[in-house]
């Protein structure tokens, strides 16, 4: 006959579940039945599992800062976005260095200071944001005929108006392409490529950090400080379409 009933610990087999249970009772060979809500650890009793989760903060919906657990993810999220956590740390998604605000983090990325994301700078962030913002909620419409390349604006042949190289922003004319290139890359045209998403607010910005800073100040009451913080990761990593 087959012994199909296995001990959960030593894998001895028995002819019946009853026999297997007796063995496991006698030798304390029951497998652990209580799992940690987040890590793979298992425990023999509910209280041992609770003790582990309390010690490590491994509850499924848990705020480590406040040592509070929540019944579901939604409640935890509401808590994290509440006043209590206003101004809490915003880690850089690439190097994990903490910033106190979305504008601080964005400034770090826009000036190309992130060691783990050296490919990011103001122009690159702008490209990412534009891709997510086809309706121009925070970016001004792109003027098509010049190419943004890292930090250098390249003048394309379309800038030639038949007699001179013309700046599309101020319509100044140059007799050499190279002079227009210099002009476009000069501080004159550090363009204000972002605008406040509040259509009643006329403010425009050269950098995304400056826009976030404006929103964080809540001066035009468009959005709350903490919702700026909530959106920053999705925006700088290009994960979501812009929509506040
Ligand atoms: Zn056993
Ligand atoms: Zn755990
Ligand atoms: Zn908390
Ligand atoms: Zn970083
Ligand atoms: Zn110009
Ligand atoms: Zn505004």
Estimated share of beta-strand residues: 5-15%
Give the biggest sheet: 2 strands, antiparallel
Number of contiguous helices: 8
Instruction: Give the SSE string.
Output: EEHEEHEEHEEHHEEEEHEEHH
Give average pLDDT, whole number.
Answer: 83
Distance between the termini: 68 Å
What ligand species are in this complex? zinc ion
Q: Walk across the major sheet and give the strand order.
A: 1-2
- What structural class do you assign from the helix and strand content? alpha+beta
Q: Give the helix proportion (percent range).
A: 25-40%
Specify the overall morphology: elongated
What would you note in describing this structure?
This protein has 244 residues and is of the alpha+beta class. The protein has two domains: 34-84, no CATH class; 88-237, no CATH class. Helices cover 33% and strands 13% of the residues. It has eight helices and 14 strands. The chain has helices at 17-27, 46-56, 73-80, 102-110, 122-132, 177-184, 208-216, 225-237, and strands at 5-6, 13-14, 34-35, 42-43, 62-63, 68-69, 90-91, 98-99, 146-149, 152-155, 165-166, 173-174, 194-195, 204-205. Strands 1-2 form a two-stranded antiparallel sheet. A two-stranded antiparallel sheet has the order 3-4. α4 runs antiparallel to α7 (208-216) and α4 (102-110) runs parallel beside α8 (225-237). The longest helix is centred in the last third of the chain and has 13 residues, at 225-237. The chain is elongated, with a radius of gyration of 29 Å. The chain starts with a strand and ends in a 7-residue tail after the last helix. The model is unreliable at 144-150 (pLDDT under 50). The structure holds zinc ion (6 copies). One zinc ion binds next to α1. One zinc ion (ZN) is lined by residues 36, 38-39, 41, 52, 56, 58. One of its GO terms (molecular function) is zinc ion binding. This is Zinc finger protein, putative. InterPro entries: Znf_C2H2_jaz (IPR022755), Znf_C2H2_sf (IPR036236), Znf_C2H2_type (IPR013087).
């Amino acid at each position: 006959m087959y012994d199909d009933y296995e001990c959960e610990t030593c894998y001895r087999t028995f002819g019946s579940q009853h026999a297997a249970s007796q063995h496991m009772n006698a030798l304390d060979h029951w497998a652990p039945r209580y799992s940690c809500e987040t890590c793979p650890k298992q425990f023999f009793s509910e209280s041992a599992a609770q003790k582990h989760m309390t010690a490590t903060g491994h509850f499924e919906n848990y705020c480590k800062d406040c040592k509070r657990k929540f019944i579901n993810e939604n409640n935890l999220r509401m808590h994290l976005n509440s006043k209590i956590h206003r101004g809490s740390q915003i880690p850089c998604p690439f190097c994990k260095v903490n910033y106190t605000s979305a504008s601080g983090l964005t400034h770090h990325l826009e000036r190309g200071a992130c060691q783990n994301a050296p490919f990011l700078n103001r122009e690159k962030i702008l490209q990412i944001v534009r891709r997510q913002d086809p309706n121009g909620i925070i970016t001004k419409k792109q003027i098509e005929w010049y190419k943004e390349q890292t930090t250098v604006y390249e003048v394309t042949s379309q800038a030639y108006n038949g007699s001179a190289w013309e700046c599309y922003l101020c319509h100044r004319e140059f007799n050499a392409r190279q002079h227009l290139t210099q002009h476009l890359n000069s501080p004159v045209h550090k363009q204000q490529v972002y605008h406040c998403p509040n259509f009643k607010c006329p403010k425009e910005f050269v950098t995304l950090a400056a826009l976030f800073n404006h929103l964080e100040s809540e001066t035009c009451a468009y959005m709350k400080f903490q919702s700026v913080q909530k959106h920053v990761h999705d925006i700088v990593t290009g994960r979501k379409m812009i929509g506040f």
